[in-house]
Amino acid sequence: MASITIDISDEQLQKLQALARESGILLEDLLRPRIEDWLSHPTSEFAEAANYVLKKNAELYRRLA
Q: Per UniProt, what is one GO molecular function of this protein (predicted)?
């Protein structure tokens, strides 16, 4: 298994550590499911959904502009 290192602020780290502690799990175990979720939902699905909403509401957006 590979490892990565990222830079985050001390405040972000403290918040993540608190969430993990409250859940009674390791920080890595808190983050792993979210990463797996990102990888299992390609951005094309998001783009398709966003385009659908934009087209569906185009007239509303035009009037609000």
A: DNA binding
* pLDDT, block means (10 residues), the chain with 65 residues: 91 96 94 86 77 89 84
Contacts of 31 (CB under 8 A, 6+ apart): 16
Give the pair of three-digit tokens for residue 9: 């602020």
Q: Does a structural domain hold residue 17?
A: yes
pTM metric for this prediction: 0.58
Residue 2 lies in a domain: no
Structural domains counted in the chain: 1
- Domain of 32, in residue numbers: 10-64
Inter-residue contact 17 to 27 (CB < 8 Å): yes
